[in-house]
Write a structure and sequence with these properties.
Length: about 375
């Protein structure tokens, strides 16, 4: 398959809030403008529920119209810094920033009772209609927005992605020509097709972020959105070519389901080998270490290749269920995994090993490769 190239002539960038265009696509927009591309930014809300970094502006919090007007002014300054001359707010109705809450597992999610005017409370088809109208009018050859997870999980970001994908499907259905190329922002740890950013675009991104001083703490070399987490201006932005098909999630789900029989096979193979000993009967069962090594290696491989824990959860469950069944006395009175030292090490060690890999916070092979090459 040919490698995807990002060379837009007419670029539409869809974002949920003011400052997102500078935070997530500052390099992308600056690079496209420098290449003489026509760029339009579509912002779905005015960021009415933002939190002010500046103490003197704290009084605006909770005053949605005033907050929205202030942040819209900041957005105008940021767009001028980026060189963008075409911008629109959506939509048929004036969508409001939904805000978000942190759920029990520490992930951003919708507020429990969203305001009826908030973006997250709107049907995706309504948002798609607004985005569709902009696409029909601007006629872009390339559209960029968040990934399906909404980046870090903000519900408004997810709605922007779903609405954009639905609008592009409508364009593709109505026109014999292809729909605009659909690109999404690749988060850390995700595959990316292109990386964009250099010293020149870094300075432009810094100027754009400085225009959003109410939301972003700007330093000489770095900026931060939350305390204690800083990013460099020259950190490149990464994009991935995506599909507008509504069932694009089916393939990853099917791949994950394959980990169920993988756990069964690993449990049966390990049970058959775990009692094998070396030539000296007094030595520790070498088959046990081979069996445990196979299971632990599979667990690490699933974390690395799937870049998630979902498939590993399924493999661990089927492994545990199979080991439990093999430890039970069968109809003929036989037991595959005996209740002895070697059998206990195999049964408990394999499941505990998988649990350790699940609990381990981050496994990123790209980080290891950079560390090994002396990357700073």
């Amino acid at each position: 398959m040919a490698k995807a190239t990002f060379n837009p002539k007419r670029l539409l960038v869809v974002h949920a809030h003011p400052d997102d265009e500078s935070l997530f696509t500052g390099h992308v927009i600056a690079d496209a403008v420098a290449a003489k591309a026509e760029v339009m930014v579509l912002t779905l809300t005015r960021g009415e529920r933002g939190r002010m970094k500046l103490e003197e502006l704290k009084s605006l919090e909770g005053n949605l119209p005033s907050m929205g007007a202030f942040r819209a002014g900041e957005l105008g300054n940021a767009l001028r810094a980026l060189g963008v001359k075409q911008h629109r707010f959506a939509g048929t109705r004036a969508y409001q920033d939904s805000g978000f809450r942190i759920n029990a597992v520490g992930k951003p999610t919708k507020v429990k009772r969203p305001d009826e005017l908030s973006l997250a409370a709107v049907n995706v088809a309504v948002i798609a209609d607004d985005i569709y109208a902009v696409i029909k009018d601007f006629k872009p050859d390339t559209v960029v927005t968040y990934n399906r997870k909404g980046g870090f999980g903000h519900p408004d970001h997810k709605m922007a992605h779903e609405g954009t994908a639905m609008a592009l499907r409508r364009i593709a259905k109505e026109n014999s020509r292809r729909a605009p190329a659909f690109w999404v922002i690749a988060e850390r740890g995700e595959r990316a097709d292109v990386t964009i950013g250099n010293a020149k675009t870094a300075q432009i991104k810094k100027d754009a972020l400085s225009a959003h001083a109410s939301q972003i703490a700007v330093g000489p070399e770095t900026y931060s959105i939350t305390n204690g987490k800083e990013f460099r201006y020259d950190q490149p932005e990464r994009l991935r070519r995506s599909s507008i098909r509504p069932l694009r999630w089916v393939k990853p789900a099917l791949i994950a389901i394959w980990s169920l029989p993988l756990g069964v096979v690993a449990a049966i193979a390990g049970t058959m080998m775990h009692t094998i000993r070396a030539s000296n009967p007094e030595q520790w069962a070498i088959g046990l270490w081979i069996s445990l090594g196979i299971v632990w290696s599979l667990a690490v491989a699933l974390r690395l290749l799937r870049n998630s824990r979902g498939a590993l959860y399924l493999m661990t469950f089927s492994l545990w269920a199979t080991l439990f069944w093999l430890s039970m006395r069968q109809g003929g009175g036989s037991v595959a995994i005996l209740n002895n030292e070697v059998g206990n090490w195999w049964a408990y060690g394999s499941v505990i090993g998988c649990a350790v890999v699940i609990i381990f916070p981050k496994i990123r092979p790209g980080v290891w490769r950079k560390s090994a090459s002396g990357h700073r």
